[in-house]
Amino acid sequence: MTESATGQPVTDDAPPPGATPPPGCPAHPGAVSLSGLEFQQTPSELYRALRRRHGTVAPVLLDGDIPAWLVLGYSEVSYVTGHDELFARDSRRWNQWPAIPPDWPLMPFVGHQPSVLFTEGTEHQRRAGVITEALEAVDQFELAQLCREIAEALIDSFAGSGQAELMTSYAHALPMRAVVRLCGMPGGGSGDTDDLVRDLRISLDAAEGDDPVAAYLRVQARIERLVKDKRSSPGSDITSRMLTHPAGLSDVEIVQDLITVIAAAQQPTANWICNTLRLLLTDDRFALNVSGGRIGVGQALNEVLWLDTPTQNFIGRWAVRDTQLGGRQIMAGDCLVLGLAAANTDPLIWPGGAVGAENSAHLSFSNGEHRCPYPAPLLADVIARTAIETLLERLPDVVLSVEPHELSWRPSIWMRGLTSLPVRFTPAAR
């Protein structure tokens, strides 16, 4: 039985004479590589070009020319994430596994793990329920106070110099210190924490020369030690609550789910902070609000989720059976990449061409059963908002120390984050 989702008609991309795509492979003609540098600084241009040529579902090539589908439309992403019976999360369904080498750069994203990310049905509900209850127990007022203390300490380290590079010294450090504290790890700027930040970054968004698989294994080993410690000496933290939950998750399951929680809380939140600071410091609309306005900060945070969402694309979903989506024939086992950033700027939901940021109907936290657990976006907002407000209160005259056009984005099709955010300000006493 074939089912379809709403989508625009697409042009016919018939293969050239004599060309035969491998079995189970999306049609190659017109496919765009997502691993090159061409569109990584301005991915919005890529999304517009793909829409013009292919409609709302486009054939793409992942690292090593592995074929997949990139879902660009808001309705289509919502449909895929809302129909687990058609587009499921267990990556073992993928029809391309025979072509995937063991050291493939995207293996940390797609290699099946005993993690909540790859579970389905009642098992997913069980695992996600444990995470949800562990996060719900976090007091948001206490978290805000913790984040403010971390922010004050970080700002103290550079306030007297009159200049700083906020990406490394602030935006990445703050959410990581907060989340490791919530999970029961030491919270200071220890080498252990710094190593974890580095390895998480590599495993999620590897630069040239990085080894994401080795980095992921180091992250896993560190979390295994944490779970072992908390099993013998529980406390008032997320890890202990997961260990003592009536669902009775195994240590292996908890390790994998904690990695998911920490990874989701750290790099996306760090990029959310930095992308919002960039907006506040470069857009005249916010100039009157930067020095003291909570309204300006809240609006900027939401606008970034629409226009510069930290998680640009997410891999993925795998077709359970042959189906149709956006006018495309999707074969059983095909991989679909969720184009969250493209969906957020879909011209069909913004017919006037200008994206408004007044509502929160974006897909930045995904949608459906596998969206971020309900408390997670609220906690991320507390961390990001506190980080930005504290910085602007402590350093009210902060400005960029380079021209806005000199800022550069990390070369990634997956995450949207700056390589650096250099600023200057009047030196302040601690």
UniProtKB/TrEMBL annotation:
Belongs to the cytochrome P450 family. Gene3D superfamilies: Cytochrome P450 (1.10.630.10). Residues 14-26 have a biased composition (Pro residues). This is Cytochrome P450. Residues 1-30 are annotated as: Disordered. It comes from Streptomyces liangshanensis. GO terms for molecular function: heme binding; iron ion binding; monooxygenase activity; oxidoreductase activity, acting on paired donors, with incorporation or reduction of molecular oxygen. It comes from the Bacteria.
